[in-house]
Amino acid sequence: MTHTTQLTKYVGNFIDELAKGGMTDIVISPGSRSTPLSMMIAEHESIKHWVHMDERSAAFFALGMAKQQQKPVALVCTSGTAAANYYPAIVEAYYSRVPLVILTADRPHELRDVGAPQSIDQIHMFSRYVKWFQEMAMPEESDAMLRYVRSIGARALHQSLDGNAGPVHLNFPFREPLVPDFSVENVWGERNEGYHPVTSGKRMLETSQIEKIKDEIGSLERGLLVCGPQEDKELAEAITSLAKHLQLPLLADPLSQVRAGEHEKDHVIECYDAMLKSEEVREGFNPDFIIRFGAMPVSKPYKLLIENHPDIVQYVVEDHEGHREPTNNHTRMIYAEGTTFCKQWLHEVGTWMFDKSWLDKWRDANRITKKCLIDDKGIGSLSEGHVITELTELLPEESSIYIGNSMPVRDLDTFFMTTPKHIRVLANRGANGIDGMVSSALGAAAYGEPVTLVLGDLSFYHDLNGLLMAKQYGLDIRIVVINNQGGGIFSFLPQANHPGHFEPLFGTPLQLDFQKAVEMYNGNFTRVDTWEQFRGAMTTSFSINDLHVIEVMTNRDENAQWHRDKWKQIEASLREV
Fold first, then answer.
1. Domain Thiamine pyrophosphate enzyme N-terminal TPP-binding, which positions (predicted)?
2. Residue 25: strand pairing partners
3. What is the number of domains present in the chain?
4. How far apart are CA 97 and CA 91, in angstroms?
5. Residue 388 and residue 415: Cα distance in Å, rounded?
């Protein structure tokens, strides 16, 4: 049996097992050592392959696609530093619980640590940021080895999804020659039903455990339900029903998927971040207990509320495992699927309401704050916060916002109000980096509803290479670039009080004409100066399926002062009541 035949059947069986397990998309970055994987993937009729030259952007593209589809996407690259460029996206996938299957090609063992070109140590190279790692055996064609390679493929898919989703890494050493032979008989091998594990059921509490929690908080009066970043589509209906059942305020993070949709929102408090910025106001909204679902909310004032009152009885509901509680206050972890937990309370705990005056207090404050935030919407010069309020009205049904980190996600927290529209909100909040945002949003745009990316000029610059995928595959996306010439969020931090160092170290103005870069990728570019122009550009972008970049020019100092004036207005209004 020739080396090429062994290589072809070994890789063919592996790729076919991925397809059998439901994988439909694999992102490939070109390279020589990865030839067997790349060519076999391109040949398989059930898998769509996407080619991206830049491994860093390719990994974020796969991450956005996996996040949108909520299923594993694979990555393929050659040996050496190509794989190292995956690292930022893998870190993000690990912390944001996104399933990726990383397939790195490698030199064979005899070419490692001997000075061979393009050879680095790839064993466990992603350390604890992958859920599972396997150094693959050298290709063989024996029945035992074909069963082995199929079992690894099945297990990789299962591991990426089991419990908290995340990335897994398989390292493939290949000897030359590397080109497979598609004329080999039965190139994809024989499928067997025994490889894919049976997925475990949803975790839930016993009735006695529910009763124990009820007893613990039964004597308390002021409670909060909190929903942080999460992507369970069913949780919004369940948690809002629970809030109504218990007559409790529900603080909904912008990434909770609770602020948008047709579910009832009478108990949803979306303006809590702006409400709680004032320390004096925060003291008037100190709860006795909190039940939180999802990750820690974006809001810093909410975090300060928790940190300043470590005596708050706090429960954090995690679907599987983990400890996402950065205040390190005493916390009771509940390991149960969130939607199931809410439904258990609805069915097993009878009619039971907390102090309604507490709920009314939050509702009144939320109404007052909301009025302050939107009283000048669409009036005067462009403001970064009202980009979000305008977008909420302009976005069509069944669309997505992919929000950038730093200042955009904070403006989303403040200005994204409840809406009956079905708008999904996506973000890279695992590690909160500004890198890879263009690629992530394009990955999300590759399937499903229309995607609108909102990000700052520095984040846009970080991932200009990502625009290549829009050009190559004709992807439909609109990118709103908030250009305040640098790092706008630093204007709100103590660094701004040191003008001698602020601009070169933190402000970092780029002074770049993005129009030239966008046109290089055959995109449409519009720079807007008024709200009328902004609305017109957005409307046009939804009528023509293409790459649209809409640049909103703002001033960093004016933006910081505008936000501070809003916060002062809100504080004064809440003090009056």
1. 14-125
2. 48
3. 3
4. 10
5. 6
**What is the amino acid identity at position 82?**
A
* Tokens 């439904």 -> residue: 343
Instruction: List the beta strands (DSSP E) in 449-505.
Output: 451-456, 477-483
- What's the alpha-carbon Rg for the chain, to the nearest Å? 26
Which residues neighbour 70 within 8 Å (Cβ) at sequence distance 6 or greater?
231
Q: For residues 269 and 365, give the distance between their C-alpha atoms in angstroms, rounded to a whole number.
A: 9
Burial 439-454 (b: 16+ CB within 10 A, else e): bbbbbbbbeebbbbbb
Closest to 411 in 3D by CA, of 381, 435, 391, 440: 391
Question: Residue 522 has which token pair?
Answer: 């055959």
Q: Are residues 316 and 244 in the same domain?
A: yes
Which pLDDT belongs to residue 93? 98
Give CA–CA dist 55/48, Å, rounded.
18
**542 secondary structure, DSSP code:** H
Check whether residue 333 and residue 387 sit in a common domain: no
Same domain, 116 and 235: no
Q: Find the CATH number of the domain harbouring 91.
A: 3.40.50.970
pLDDT band, residue 202 (cuts 50/70/90): confident
Q: What is the mean pLDDT of residues 487-491?
A: 60
pLDDT of residue 391: 96
Residues 92 and 212 in one domain: no
Integer Cα distance of 285 and 277 in angstroms: 12
| Segment 264-268 long-range contacts (CB within 8 Å, at least 24 positions apart) | 264/240, 265/240, 265/418, 267/225, 267/240, 267/243, 267/359, 267/363, 268/240, 268/243, 268/418
- Tell me the residue range of the domain where 446 lies: 378-576
DSSP letter for 419, please. Answer: B
Residues 6+ apart with CB under 8 A from 114: none
Q: How many CB atoms lie within 10 A of CB 529?
A: 12
**pLDDT tens across 353-365, in order?**
688 899 999 999 9
Distances 112 to 36, 109, 118, 133 between C-alpha atoms, Å: 19, 5, 10, 18
Q: Which residues contact 234 (CB under 8 A, 6 or more apart)?
A: 339
Mapped onto helix, strand or coil, the DSSP state of residue 73 is strand
Strands (E), 443-488: 451-456, 477-483
Please tell me the chain's helix, strand, coil percentages from 3-state DSSP, rounded to the nearest 5. 45, 15, 40
Query: If residue 165 lies in a helix (H) or strand (E), which one and from where to where?
Result: none
Per-residue DSSP letters for 168-201?
A: EEEEEE-PSP----TTSTTTT----TTSSPPPP-
Alpha helices in 300-406 (DSSP H): 300-307, 338-348, 356-374, 384-394
Residue 101: what are its φ and ψ, rounded to 5°?
A: -115, 110
pLDDT-derived band of residue 406, with 50, 70 and 90 as boundaries?
confident
